[in-house]
Amino acid sequence: MRQFLDFEKSVADLETKIEELRQVGNRSDGADLDDLNIDEEITRLSDKADKLLRAVYNKLTPLQKVQVARHAQRPHALDYIRALTTDFTPLAGDRAFGDDQAMIGGLARFRGQSVIVLGTERGADTESRLQHNFGMARPEGYRKAQRLMKLAERFGLPVLTFVDTAGAWPGIDAEARGQAEAIARSIDTCLNLSVPVVATVIGEGGSGGAIAIAAADRVLMMEHAIYSVISPEAAASILWRDPKLAPAAAEALKLTAQDLKRLGLIDRIIDEPIGGAQRLPEKAVQWAGDAIAEELMGLKELSPEGLIAQRRTRYLEMTCGK
């Protein structure tokens, strides 16, 4: 069943009525539907629901964008990898501690080209969310990412990453195994790769847990994705000691794809179907694949030295200014 967000209630009411009418039509079983005008009413309500959905999504607030980015039915990293690549061969472990299933990755072919793919996977139901730790990686996850990125460099393979995490796992176990060091080294590995790196923020890009695999040549964002150093709820709690001020925090953080594009912190916004990627996930994934392919094509013209120099300059300008 489709899950609706709180600001979609008016659309949900219409779509519920449409479904009820369809069920009435199915139960009629050969009755004269012209007298009931069911088809005509369904068409009228469908048009009204489409227009209302478009109107709602054309004026989303930053906090509503956060809700969309976190929607449980949005396609996740594994959905993108399975739909956009062939011959995906997962690789496990950091060769030091263990395997972290919040960070998934391996070898694959993207539109005929061999690549390394990486992504933070949230999981789609309770069992898989627990398996993938809700997409929050531990140090061994980031060290696995480093291992795979270095493997890509060794064999001259582009790196594609899919970011969807609330942030790195904040547990004591992660801190004990060097969470900050693992994230820092992962960022450093990204910056020094001599192969093209394209990162796509597909849902929530949270703090260092996101940038650890997103310090890329090209950073793309889905239209309703978010990317921020901190969540609005946490920012409101820290700054104003009131999580109810999350809407104001979301506005101040400039965490939407549109804000980040204006600030020059990302390169491209990928359109989503009206109502978000969760409504038509296959189409959203396909559009993302087309955008990634275009960006990857442009990066092939740069030499390894040129890639490194351009990438390092880009991030130095972000942090230190031009």
Q: How would you sum up this structure in a few lines?
A:
The chain has about 325 residues and is of the alpha/beta class. The protein has 15 helices and 8 strands.
- Strand content of the residues, in percent? 15-25%
Radius of gyration: 22 Å
Shape: globular
Detail the poorly predicted runs.
Answer: none
Distance between the termini: 49 Å
Helix content: 40-55%
Quaternary state reads single chain
What's the total number of strands?
A: 8
Largest sheet: 8 strands, mixed
The helix count comes to 15
**H/E series:** HHHHHEEEHHEHHEHEEHHHEHH
Specify the structural class.
alpha/beta
**Mean pLDDT across residues:** 92
Task: Give a description of the structure.
Helices cover 51% and strands 16% of the residues. With 322 residues, it is α/β, with parallel strands linked by helices. The termini are far apart. The model has no long low-confidence stretch (mean pLDDT 92).
